[in-house]
């Protein structure tokens, strides 16, 4: 088999690495990919993820068995619809189903319809509606942009002054609604489910770290690190989440008749009143993918083939080892970040691995930083503590100028 992965970041690097290990797959292509992928034998294809016509033509010309979509933008824009209409197999939801991520209002209405626990909320399509909500809002409260925002469209405000400051940056209209949500308190967990029309399987649970600085300070980013397993998310919490959230979500997808073949991410918060959904994503997450996929002992190529061919999915076999991902970000991220940092040759052997994301090559063919989140350092160990220590040892032994990273990834598990 030859397969194509759409995207260019650390998530896609992790997907490609896992597919390279499949006994069923001969060649892995990634469009547009990144130069770091060549180091693990993945072929980068110089086609942008929004150029559906060129991607479909490549898939046809190179006899690609199936395509796996990484980023949300391509899914929201209808890449699955385009490929399907051209007789090409592709893994991901169609444009209608992708609204579970591309429109928070759509997702909230879906949850309400299928009695899936989430925050109380109100959608505003005009400043008059905003003013009416502000007149009765208690704080803290959460303000969200309705559309895709790269993980940066969520604002927790402590008072009306902060709310007005956030709202001044948003254009509220019927085309660009703003959602006010009840502030929920509790730890967050990442649940990924592989599904098709016949069945579903839950992947290993992870926990993300969204804030930019240690101790969860500063603005939200695309994610500064993750780890799996999550020992504080015990079996009772998992079972309750499956019953109250995962199963009703899958039932809702089938009841609505969505063309959904692929991954759904369910971000949950374990509140004092039980698990509640924070958001849906319609694809694998970054940086969680880098710690979730290594824990799947199954042949991932076989699992995805079963998925796209609408077969009953094999049960997931989970590796008990722990994985901790610490993201190395460019100075200035998530705003105006520095580029061009020379990256070292990482000597890590079996203690970890590197998943490259925003990288380029200089005139000497050396890898350099080329974006906000440059790469992931994934520590591996028999425990979270050991995996965490290995990740930070790798970072300490390979300093990179004009970069930074959080120093407390996985502390919540280690301090349990």
UniProtKB/TrEMBL annotation:
Q: Per the database record, which ranges form the ATP-grasp domain?
A: 108-309
Tell whether Hydrolase is among the UniProt keywords: no
Annotated transmembrane regions: none
EC number(s) stated in the UniProt entry for this protein: 6.3.4.13
- State which pathway it belongs to: Purine metabolism; IMP biosynthesis via de novo pathway; N(1)-(5-phospho-D-ribosyl)glycinamide from 5-phospho-alpha-D-ribose 1-diphosphate: step 2/2
Gene Ontology terms describing biological process: 'de novo' IMP biosynthetic process; purine nucleobase biosynthetic process
Cofactor(s) needed for function: Mg(2+); Mn(2+)
Q: Which reaction does it catalyse?
A: 5-phospho-beta-D-ribosylamine + glycine + ATP = N(1)-(5-phospho-beta-D-ribosyl)glycinamide + ADP + phosphate + H(+)
Is Ion transport given among the entry's keywords?
A: no
Q: Could you say which protein family the record assigns here?
A: Belongs to the GARS family.
Q: Which PANTHER family match?
A: PHOSPHORIBOSYLAMINE--GLYCINE LIGASE, PHOSPHORIBOSYLAMINE--GLYCINE LIGASE, CHLOROPLASTIC
Query: How is this protein named in the record?
Result: Phosphoribosylamine--glycine ligase
The encoding gene: purD
